[in-house]
Every structure is written in C-alpha cells, then in structure tokens.
Amino acid sequence: MAITVEGAGWEVIDLSVDVKAEKFIETIEKYPNCVIGLSALLITTMVNMEATVAKIRANFPDKKILIGGAPLSQDFCDKIGATFYSSDPQGAIEFLRNSAA
Predict the structure, then answer these.
(1) Domain containing 81 — which CATH number?
(2) Structural domain tally of the chain?
(3) Residue 86: strand pairing partners
(4) Which of 2, 28, 92, 98 has the most Cβ atoms closer than 10 angstroms to its Cβ?
C-alpha cells in the first residue's frame, strides 16, 4: 500500500513490520500532522492492531487512523475505533484526498 500512496503524491514514513505502539506515538510526536496507516495480513495480528489503536487514541484521541488488509472489515474498524477502513490502497488515497481538502 505504501508504494501506491507514495505514487499518489503522499509522503510515507514506513515504520516496517511488528511495530510497538510506542514507536507510533514517538512518530506522531515528531510528525503531528500525520495520518496513521496500519495493515494486517494475518488474523493473528488483529489483536495487536486493536491494542495499538487504543494506545494511539489514549494519547491522540483525534488522530486519523486508516486500516486495511485481507482479514479486516468495516466492522473491525468500527470495533477498534479506527477512523477509516479500505480494502484497497485506492480507497485510502481517496480518504487522504478528501481529508486534505
């Protein structure tokens, strides 16, 4: 997804895989206008995603958080308190474009 978002003109700061919530918080502090994007390719990572979103929300309640990935859904997005779910990178790009306007 990062390559597609970059190709659409957005700067992406890739924190890699298996990132602790504290790293997201440090990055948000460094880039306060950022939008957070999380993806999951396995069902087993969804629990960690839920915990990460909760920790981000505890520190930055209004931060925009996008999620995507094969096992995810809009219901999961709503359940964990993320801002937006997309099943594909183009949906994330549209969200970013609409959010910037």
Answers:
(1) 3.40.50.280
(2) 1
(3) 68
(4) 92
